[in-house]
Amino acid sequence: MLSSAEQTKPLTKFVLMARLTDWVGQNWSVVRVTFYLSRSEMIPPSAVRNRTSGEQALSRFLPSSVLITGATGGIGSALAEAYAAPGIELVLHGRNEAQLAELAARCRARGAGVRTGILDLRDRVGLKKWLAEVSAHLPLDLAIVNAGVNTNIGPDGAGERWEAVEELLEVNVLAAIATIDALLPAMRARRSGQIALVSSLAAWYGLPLTPSYSASKAALKAYGEAIRGWLAPEGIGVSVVMPGFVESRMCRAFPGPKPFLWPAARAALAIKRGLQKNAARISFPFPLNFGSWLLAVLPPGISQRLVRLMDYGR
Questions:
Q1: N or C: which end of the chain has fewer CB within 10 A?
Q2: What is the pLDDT of residues 230-275, one digit of tens each?
């Protein structure tokens, strides 16, 4: 026989879903407008002024030189192979020398020129020195700021270790902004270039299992949105990439459910297509993107209960 708690749980879910459906119905016009804006793809004013056709405008965002940080991760390596082609120069960063060498070999086999950099992104002095050397020899058309790490509260909910939190913020936030800071002078001088910051759908609503990771990705989302408006008049595109669950070592280590899991190659293709259009936000998959956004706009009490019911909370 089911306990009273077990008998109540399905009813609780039904009541919550009924309230959610009612709220969406009452606020459908807001939902439609916000969703439309979240999927809008904008081109900087300078591109609009100078284009003679849609094809010419998009050609501004077909790069011949691409920097990818965190290139040995699932999304990073898939992006490197997606961009690898004759006439393309790739600059790949990673910390695992053997994996980076294997990736470089696969990209060269596709006809791309490849340069690699092996360094710890927490060394921001070394990072900026390396990027300055790269920029001096190769003007970068596209920088994909992808490197990131994760941590969680642990299986018993004891909490994140401070040392892990510090490392996460140094890599996910400080190193990301330092990378952009090092590349911007050259891009602004020639009034062209493109930056992609890899955030996460966790930026919409912080997950109790991964507080620091959620916070770091929300920081990247806000930073990317801010500098897009700042740099657009100078001909520089900025996109925020917000993936859901994508097959990778980091994803496998995530302690919660992983609905709508995408292969890394599929994610890379979606990102590449979005960047070609200079999309302000590249978020996927749709069901998880919409659900994550909805958690951010629902009343907090409902969102928190939904998160617990979906096994992302305690």
A1: N
A2: 999 999 999 999 999 999 999 999 988 999 999 999 999 999 999 9
